[in-house]
Amino acid sequence: MPVESSLASVERRAAAFAEWVRKLRRGLPVPRLTAVESGRCVDPSTDPLAALAVELDLLAAQITRREAEFERLFDLVHMVDKGVGVDDVLDRIFDWFVDLIPYDRIGCAFVTADGTHLTAHWARSQLGPVQITSGYSQPLAGSSLAAVLARGEPRILNDLEAYLADHPESDSTRRIVREGGRSSFTCPLVVGERPIGVLFFTSREANTYREIHQAIFRQIAAQVSIVIEKSRLYQDIVEHNRRLQEERGRLAEAAIRDPLTGALNRGAIMDRLAAALRDAGHGDTVGIVMADIDRFKSINDQCGHAAGDAALVEFTRRLAAALREGDLIGRYGGEEFLLVLPGIGAEAVRTAAERLRRAVAATPFDLGGEVRTVTASFGVVAVKAEDGPPAELVAAADRALYVAKNSGRDKVVAG
Prior knowledge:
Elements: H1 3-25, H2 33-38, H3 48-81, H4 86-96, E1 105-111, E2 117-125, E3 137-139, H5 144-151, E4 155-157, H6 160-166, H7 171-179, E5 183-191, E6 194-203, H8 211-255, H9 266-279, E7 286-293, H10 296-303, H11 305-322, E8 328-333, E9 336-342, H12 346-361, E10 365-366, E11 371-372, E12 376-383, H13 390-405, E13 412-414
Helix pairs in contact: 1-3, 3-4, 3-8, 4-8, 6-7, 10-11, 11-12
């Protein structure tokens, strides 16, 4: 070939390479140079430009991979900024990282606060049923994972069955093999110089992982570790706040409950009565029942105050069991109880009170060694909001109760 022709060919190829690099630098799509060059039947081992094409293709692949890494990391950081828990972050890693690191399963475990154990927190698998679930824990001392965390370097095991044969004491490996894993890529999570946990990538195929995967994880390890730790801390804060809210709720509920019987206390039941009267529709009535254990003083005198307490507890249980959903019971004072039955008329409230009376007298009370028949008297009214303030309406039911107590007890009297 003439020298001029050869030089012209080199110049054309060099110009094409330069244009290719300009497009790559501007973020434009570029073809694989080795595919273009293959049409020339050039050999990279003897043609420097062909060798350059190979290296440029590798560079383009690396740039594409790094762009994908940065995109994934940006999305993860954005998730944490929005306040997302660690489980959601790990789910996103499972969905997003498969084009960076191959896997059929990812598991995450955290170092315990005292640094003695590694405890599984999360796993997602496309293998068989998950064999290492949340809470599974193993001591770190003397383990291979302790060495991985100490070195801070990813570890590749490309034949888990062979590794298990050499390390039959490894329960975690046995579980992963049983699940269907054949190779693993163990990546330490380190924030600063503090190991916080491990990501376990697992493949159903043996010999899946290469040095390139170690290099990829090294590039993103610090950012991934920080994102996981931040999301974990956020989740801990959310969980702590949830427990505080639950505790506040329990304390608030305890403040309106009678500590012995669990019924609403006097102030709370009166508040609920006032609310029921406000909520009643035009012309609707609310049933008010005053209930009192008959001859309660004799139980205390003859059986002791512990037996009296047992009678109050059982009395409350039987009343509550016989009420409708939405009906309310409160301890008004001593052995006297106030019941609020929304949306019920005069005849219905009397029928309800009869049901309550029968529930109390149906079987003897076990008073802690003493078995005794207990009865109760009931005074009932059906009222509307315009009939008067709650205290006056309760007083009307109380007057009916007084009549029941003084006309033989164990009966219902309507006011």
